[in-house]
Design a protein that fits this description.
The protein has 404 residues and is of the alpha/beta class. The protein folds into two domains: 58-255, 3-Layer(aba) Sandwich (Rossmann fold); 274-399, no CATH class. It has 20 helices and ten strands. It has helices at residues 4-22, 28-33, 35-46, 77-83, 96-107, 121-128, 140-146, 156-166, 182-185, 187-190, 209-217, 236-246, 257-269, 274-289, 294-316, 318-324, 327-356, 359-368, 373-385, 388-398, and strands spanning 58-62, 65-71, 89-92, 112-115, 137-138, 149-152, 175-178, 199-205, 222-230, 249-254. It has a ten-stranded mixed β-sheet, with helices on both faces. Helix 12 (236-246) links the parallel strand 9 (222-230) and strand 10 (249-254). The longest helix has 30 residues, at 327-356. The structure holds NADP nicotinamide-adenine-dinucleotide phosphate. NADP nicotinamide-adenine-dinucleotide phosphate binds at residues 93-98, 116-117, 120-122, 153-156, 158, 161-162, 179-180, 182, 204-205, 208-209. The site of NADP nicotinamide-adenine-dinucleotide phosphate has 25 residues, from helix 5, helix 6, helix 8 and strand 8. Pathway: Amino-acid biosynthesis; L-isoleucine biosynthesis; L-isoleucine from 2-oxobutanoate: step 2/4; Amino-acid biosynthesis; L-valine biosynthesis; L-valine from pyruvate: step 2/4. GO terms for molecular function: isomerase activity; ketol-acid reductoisomerase activity; metal ion binding. Substrate binds at residue 326.
Length: 404
Amino acid sequence: MASKTASRALRSSAKQLAQPAARQRRSFVSAVSSASRVRSAVESRAAFLPLQQWRGMKTVDFAGHKETVYERDDWPREKLLDYFKNDTLALIGYGSQGHGQGLNLRDNGLNVIIGVRKNGKSWQEAQQDGWIPGTNLFDADEAISRGTVIMNLLSDAAQSETWPAIKPQLTKGKTLYFSHGFSPVFKSQTGVDVPSDIDVILVAPKGSGRTVRTLFREGRGINSSIAVYQDVTGKAQEKAIALGVAIGSGYLYETTFQKEVFSDLYGERGCLMGGIHGMFLAQYEVLREKGHSPSEAFNETVEEATQSLYPLIGANGMDYMYAACSTTARRGAIDWSKRFKETLKPVFQDLYNSVETGEETQKSLEFNSRKDYREAFEKEMKEIRDLEIWRAGKAVRGLRPENV
Ligand SMILES: NC(=O)c1ccc[n+]([C@@H]2O[C@H](COP(=O)([O-])OP(=O)(O)OC[C@H]3O[C@@H](n4cnc5c(N)ncnc54)[C@H](OP(=O)(O)O)[C@@H]3O)[C@@H](O)[C@H]2O)c1
């Protein structure tokens, strides 16, 4: 779509944006040793933020709405070590989040232990990551009994399934931590009714556990939401902020358990994954029906989007992306965006409603509690992998300069 000059500009911007990824290979040690360089980069970035206050809790003006944001700089490692000096962080579950959060906590020097079912997939993976059975790797019950902060990072379906066994072990003085509001918010469906005499907090990284780990290793930090469900000690919020930093967050945004789970379920079904996949498929299919080749249909639907245009939106916003493309492309895109918005808004309203009523929760619990959920999921992934669009995509990716 873009003119040659614009394409060149887009390519060079995309190249610049790709550079931080190359730095992902740095070790944790080199990331830490370059902390001061990172800090000064963060500080110079901060000059562009509408901050009222730099250090400490700050109020940031988000498009006219003032919100409180907490940052990692307020919790240097020494302060974290002191704050949690009497705690054992028992991280239950070692999937995507367990892996990322657990390794970051360990690298931060905190007393963290892992609790998973013995001889499951996670048990093996934890050992591969250097967790030692009997030292800092236990079965879930043993880890919970040793822990003061119980970080429930089982899959949401497993949180519901194991709750009858976990609840009696959550005695007064412990803290219960989640990375999703799912279990307590939908307690009538999940059965997760938290004991009334413990703090219950949330740190929800806005990204996969792999990203939590990668950004930490780069000396950066993921954005996370924090919330308090129950504050018995008067320290629940402070604990959530400290844990948010300890697991590798850069900035922490306040929310409630309910708002976190509603927005998260909605977003992942919409623009983050479900909606965007649906748009890709619809656009690709029409191009193919009109006689375009698979490579042309893929390039015009996915490759240009993910490799060139979306990174520009991420870096500088929609107006910047529009400004960087040809006048022809821009005119049509601005006009058609209105039609897409009008057409899709009712779909998004249905989706939000389905989240709010618990329909999405029910479906998720039913599917993910099936004994054969891994096999059923793999079957669906194979169906997606085998779609022509994604087979064409594999061939297109193979021709990228870095893959040839
Ligand atoms: N993944 C993300 O991108 C993401 C992002 C933000 C927040 N979260 C939230 O973080 C939490 C953890 O999510 P996740 O994606 O890391 O989970 P996950 O990858 O699905 O991890 C599953 C863990 O649960 C264990 N498990 C599954 N079924 C079990 C059962 N019946 N009994 C005991 N253990 C069982 C697995 O152990 P085995 O290996 O033994 O099966 C594994 O350790 C969830 O609340 C999720 O909503 C996730």
